[in-house]
Each structure stands twice: as C-alpha cells, then as structure tokens.
Amino acid sequence: MANLLEQLAAMTVVVADTGDIDAIRQFTPRDATTNPSLILAAAQIPTYQELIDRSLRESRQVIGAEAPAEDVVREAIDEISVTFGKEILKIVPGRVSTEVDARLSYDTEATITKARKLIGLYAQAGIGTDRVLIKIASTWEGIKAAEVLEREGIHCNLTLLFGFAQAVACAEAGITLISPFVGRILDWYKKSTGRDSYPGAEDPGVLSVTRIFNYFKTHGYGTEVMGASFRNIDEIVELAGCDLLTISPALMDQLRQSDALLERRLDAAHPGASEERIHIDEATFRTMMAADAMASEKLDEGIRGFSKAIETLEGQLAHRLAVIEGGAAFTHAVHEIFLLNDLDGDGCITREEWLGSDAVFDALDTDNDGRLAPEDVRGGLGAPLAISR
C-alpha cells in the first residue's frame, strides 16, 4: 500500500519547504520553496560553503574591486538566493520560489525592482519565468507589486498570508499562487485561547485554508492555494486535495513512514460551501486587516522575523567575505570608516568628526594626538577582527 506521502502526491502537488538541497533530492517533490530563514539554516551546512563562496566572489566581480564590503554582501544576498534556486531546479521538475527582501514589504516600487533583478539573474542562467515564483509578503503594497509583475509575465507567490482579505486581494490581482500559513495561525490561537491543541478538523489554520480554497474554486479564481507552515501531519491530512502543500523534510518523513489511508478533503471540481463574492480595494483591505488581530499581528511578526534572518545572513556573509578576501576585505572596512567619519576629506578623523563613542576613538588613537589616520584604524581594528593585512 502507498504511504501517506505517496497518496498525498497523487492528489496535491507536494512542495519541499527547505533550502537543504540534499533533503530535496531525498524526497523528490515537484516544486521547492525557500526563504531567508531556510537559506540561513542551509548556509550553516559545510556542504554548501562552496555555493556561498562562489556567490560572494561573483558579487565582488559585479560590484567592483573597490566597492565597500556592505555593497558586496547586499549583492550577494540576491546571488545566493538565485544560486540555491538554480541548484534546486536541477532536482525538481517544477518551480522554485525565491523571496524578495522582506524589508521591502511596504515599498511597491522597490519590490518590483528587486523582483525584476532576481528574474534577470535566473535569465542569465537560461532559466525562464515558467520555473520561478517570486515570493512577496502579502501586504497591500506587496500585492500591488505582484499585480504589476504578473502582467509582465513574472509569476508570484504571495507569502505571510494569514487573513481572508489578503487572499481575496491576491485573487483579484491575478496572483499565480498564495501561501496561507497554517501553523502560524494555529500558534496565534493557541496563545490567544490558552488551548494546548486542536483536532485537525478544528485547527484554525486548516479552517482558514479550507475557506480560501472553497471561495477561490466557487468563484472561478485561477490563483493557486498552497498551504504552508505546518506544525503536524494532522494539518496536512486535513488539507489533502489542496492545490499545493509546502512541507518540511521532517514532516515529509513522517508522512512517508505512515501507511494510513488518506481521504481527499478538498476538491477543486466540487468545492464546499462558500460565501458570496466580495471586492477588496485598499480601504476595504485595511479595514478588514485592522479587524483581524491574528492576521495583522502575524503579518507584522513574519516580516520582522524574515528581516532579522536577512540581517543575520548579511552578518555571516560579511564575515565570510573577510575570510575569503583577507587584507582586501579589511582595507574595504577601513575605507568605509573613513568615508563615514572623515567629514572634510583631509585623510584623518578628528574627535569632532568621529561619529562613534569616545571610548572607541581613544582605543584607536594610540599616539594620543587627537586624530585618526588610516594606519591607526588598521592597527586598532586589525587584531580583534583577526584579518591579516
């Protein structure tokens, strides 16, 4: 008898929710999705260090030998996202989702620009738009950006989706796919109600996705529904038949280990009861989100979490760049300090110009002349940074 994972794959597109290329190879899903947190986790695996290093070197070539390290790292985030995506596409037959910087979630134009850049990087590798989904947070600004991109033939996956208003706005905008976060919805309700658990059929995240799915199918929207962020396999079982489900390797393994019979719960051809069709403009969107504490709080929390993951990844990349480039990277760091603090451009920094703390200035000013020359900064920072010159 087929295991649960095999039965699920017969009625739902199974997507790997991971940046671990080996795990994707093990479970052979049709699609894969990543985000900064997943790439950050994958970046800790020694096997992938060469991918990271290659992206950093390519970014240095793109940005230029004299560019500051922070610019190289910023470029490398995009390069690494696409590098992982390209490796994943060697394994999966379908699509990979690549995420726009979450810090741009409330900036429509910046989101559009970043998405076009990511698609351009894929195009340079000969990968077409049919194999890539651009992941964007489901803010009003993000949905409007995705609407523009979809008209250009750039397909989007709207993520961090928790509320019905977000889902309907995405459908009306003609978005390719949405990712309602089942587990995070459950987390909010457990904390809010004090309940330890919910049976699968009563799980608030399951109920939310079921409502969205039936609404889309009843009213003929083409936007696909991909349940995401699962906490247990009961949630997955209750959504069998959903267009797509993105599942972590750990939960896929649990599904694979079970030979229980799986029944279809959702059916696009015969959707369950649904409410009347509504229209979502910006005012309605904001009113409905304001009335939905769960959706508003989880959206904000998700954006902050993804943003923090990006910042952490940037910090790790900066360190790795320093290791790769040695003295060159250190020279860039010193150069940046002087660009920021040498206000009159005379090649030295006085205490009045110094933007940092007096304690740091005093530590660097080893000859106590009240001025910092490049050699003072190199000498003072070189040891703690452990970068050879």
UniProtKB/TrEMBL annotation:
Pathway: Carbohydrate degradation; pentose phosphate pathway; D-glyceraldehyde 3-phosphate and beta-D-fructose 6-phosphate from D-ribose 5-phosphate and D-xylulose 5-phosphate (non-oxidative stage): step 2/3. Pfam families: TAL_FSA. CDD domains: Transaldolase_TalAB. Its main location: cytoplasm. It catalyses: D-sedoheptulose 7-phosphate + D-glyceraldehyde 3-phosphate = D-erythrose 4-phosphate + beta-D-fructose 6-phosphate. It comes from the Bacteria. Its EC number is 2.2.1.2. It is found in: Cytoplasm. Residues 329-364 form the EF-hand domain. Keywords: Cytoplasm, Pentose shunt, Schiff base, Transferase. The active site is at 135 (schiff-base intermediate with substrate). Transaldolase is important for the balance of metabolites in the pentose-phosphate pathway. Belongs to the transaldolase family. Type 1 subfamily. This is Transaldolase.
